[in-house]
Amino acid sequence: MGEETTELILTGDRAEATKNVCDCPVAYTVKRWVSVDPRSCVSEDFEMKNGNCSRRTALKTIVGGTAASLLHAQGLHRDLIRLDAEFQTIENFSASDCWSMQRVGTWSLPNRNRLADLLFSQSIGIGLSCWRFNIGGAITDKITTPWRTADTFEVAEGMYDWTRQAPEHWFLGAAKAREVPQFLAFVNSPPGRMTRTGITYGRSGPDPTNLKPGFEGQFARYLLDILEHFRNNPDIGQRIAFDYISPVNEPNVEWNGKSQEGCRAANDDVKAVLRALDAELKKRKCPTEITGIEVSGLPPLISVSDRMSKKYSVKYGDYLDDFLGDKAIAGMLNSRFSYHDYGSELLKGQLVENREAVRKKFDQYPGWKPWMSEFESIGWIAAYRFLFPCAGGQRRCSWGGTRQVAGTTPYARSTALALPIHE
């Protein structure tokens, strides 16, 4: 049997795709948008000249037609898509409950179930295969955006109130009930009692991290107490065996403002947390794997973050060499290293060159896989809000943070789910 390919031909007024299997062409056509003005865009029907159209071919064809419309191509452009060869594996298609679900989880039960179906169902929704649960650091009114602070289970050291984060609890159970196969718990900041500032964000000063000196062990025990609670929950519907724990979020960001929970950490600070957490996982024979460390941006994976390193006189960045090249630390991780991909969609530099450089660096560490664990197309937010207005025709909208795709190459991409503030 001959190879299967699809050739997209993009012109100024239409896009054609021809699928060849055993040298038997089957043609499909997608006409361009009638108007390229986004305020009055009308798309014509997708025409199938032959009914035997595979879902993959249809998708590629539609993408081609959309690209032709948006790019206003004047000449002839050809792209060859190899359907017989796959170049990446996306290990999960995931979203986070941070920060939307603490509000959305208070909606009426029918509306919560409707949203859960849209998130988790394989038949009537987007079929997420992993759900990320935010272990909050404590609600504080000092953070200026109330959405960006989450409750903590901890009442005092070793004491917990498991009725907290009830809205997020509900969506954990909803994900399990709809057979989401993977769960990941992550942390933006330790609880305030464990931080140098006494709150869940940092302040200007000489400290390279906001975690108190010597508190790595307490932080690890706190995380394991939470993991074990969910794993052994007497309520079967809320019994969640987290596959992954991510203890550090964007350590190369200062988090000195009052915008949200966050905790900077120099490379050595992160390693101290990883050592303590790895020891506690082994002590309690907990099968949850450490993943992370959820770096902000692509360049810090392969280069030192100069501004942070100079300001605090310690090393931030160059994460792949510093962590994967450290055999003891690398052995604590699960052969995956995460990064966040906000605002990296620019065609020059950020979209292509950065990913090529990261891919080459990962190639130096066989068996390791990059996970792009958070993404939002910052440069397109204004366009999204214009194209998809809120109720009443208003074009200003508040967007929830439920977005993530974790993939095994730096080319994994994500879609965003926009959630309104009110039910």
Structure description:
The protein is α/β, with parallel strands linked by helices and 423 residues long. It contains twelve helices and 16 strands. The strands form four sheets. A six-stranded mixed beta sheet has the order 12-11-10-7-6-16, covered by helices on one side. Strands 4-3-2-1-5 form a five-stranded antiparallel beta sheet, covered by helices on one side. Helix 6 links the parallel strand 11 (244-246) and strand 12. Helix 5 packs across helix 6. The termini are far apart.
Condensed summary:
This protein is an alpha/beta fold and 423 residues long. It is 28% helix and 17% strand. The strands form four sheets. The protein has a six-stranded mixed sheet with strand order 12-11-10-7-6-16, with helices on one face. A five-stranded antiparallel sheet has the order 4-3-2-1-5, with helices on one face. It has a three-stranded parallel sheet with strand order 13-14-15, with no helix packed on it.
Question: What is the fold's blueprint, element by element?
Answer:
Elements: E1 5-10, E2 14-21, E3 24-31, E4 46-48, H1 55-71, E5 77-82, E6 92-96, H2 101-104, H3 109-120, E7 130-135, E8 154-156, E9 159-160, H4 166-177, E10 182-187, H5 216-231, E11 244-246, H6 267-283, E12 289-290, E13 295-296, H7 299-302, H8 306-312, H9 319-324, H10 327-330, E14 336-340, H11 353-363, E15 369-374, H12 381-387, E16 405-406
Parallel strand pairs: 6-7, 7-10, 10-11, 11-12, 13-14, 14-15
Antiparallel strand pairs: 1-2, 1-5, 2-3, 3-4, 6-16, 8-9
